[in-house]
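Email to the structure team, subject: Alpha-ketoglutarate permease model.

Hi all, the expression group asked for a predicted structure before they design truncation constructs. Nothing fancy, just the tokens so they can compare against earlier work. One-line instruction: predict Alpha-ketoglutarate permease, return tokens.
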Amino acid sequence: MTMAAQAATGVTPAQAETSDRQKIKAIVAASSGNLVEWYDFYAYAFTSIYFASSFFPSSSPTGQLLATAGIFAVGFFMRPLGGWIFGRIADRRGRKSSMVFSVLLMCAGSLMIGILPTYETIGVLAPVLLLVARLAQGLSVGGEYGTAATYMSEIAGKGRRGFLSSFQYVTLIGGQLLAVLVVFALQHILTGDEMRAWGWRIPFLLGAAAAIVAMMLRGSLKESASHETMKSKEAGSVRALMQHKRALLITLAFTMGGSLYFYTMTTYMQKFLVNTVKLDLKTVSTVMTLALVVFMLLQPVFGALSDKIGRRNNMILFSGLAMLGAVPLLSTLSLVTSPWAAFGLILTGLVIATFYTSISGVVKAELFPAEVRALGVGLPYAIANAIFGGTAEYVALSFKTWGNEGLFFWYVAAMAAVAFAASLWMPDTRKYGYLDGNGRMSS
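Reply from the structure team: attached below.
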């Protein structure tokens, strides 16, 4: 790689000479932190039913769950701040430093929840400290996405970037599945009383320990940003980022459609199958676990496909299929009675999602120059994800409460249409992508 190309991409000479074996090691180290981040974040959701009464004394179990759900939602709305803070650190101090700090913050949040005294012991301070811990986790997850996506895109190299970067979503989905499996195992080892008394703490303590391992792995990584990039006056600057309005709008649009569709087909789908399809909870858990395992395994396949056909074509296929398929797919799913039919329809929806999720990070990283890449990937993603992904369940349930659940299906299709328009507006990053030194996008 020439000096000019290195300056344009922000890639270090050492990274340019990284062997395939070293690249795989770096991807594993980077994505291991991503797995831990998402495991810890979702462990809260899956254990809240057990610890709600310990922090929110109330005569109403529903009120307790609403309080814990509210604190879970706060984590989503801390993500934009995390995207800005850690994106700035990554662009000014290096991707490696940002990734180490983000997983350290997640470790602190998980450990804090795992050892936190209950309301009975310290009174109102207990829910306050629980909120502080969730704020820390929200900041961490908000910073994780953009920095990890940037690092994995930069270290992967031309020709295999889609394939290697796809492991970000492999570990994201894997983190959710791991949280489910840990809670499932504890439910079969401990009694209900033991789970409520102290068993719910175990997933958080395991997450904190795993975060330390991930932090050590990340500490051994090579930095992917060049010295020139980090010392640039524009590094991590919001003012410099605003010079790339086209890339910002495309990233926002992709996240609006992609996150809403992803959360609809994953986290909200469990409630949809219970409340609308009327399947029993045990069957729903089995259907969704199997579907998510297949979804996880498909990520590298579709990431490799993007290396062949281009990221723009992947996005056109995702957004076009989601726009046309959301309404008929969800409408048909609401009428099925067979678990296998539900599984087939959900898997169809997840296959469509894979065109986006497999390249979610790299397609955005290619749109920004090195000095604002982590900030450009992380900040608009965190904003749109909080607004559209984090509220997917609330909006869906609101439409159902109003007796117009079908309108939610059209809402999903409409946001996919926004992503489709952005896909058509997006340049072919094989010719105009910043990661390969060809960035010539207009604002």
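The mean pLDDT is 85. The chain has two domains: 22-223, 241-442. Ping us if the truncation boundaries need rechecking.
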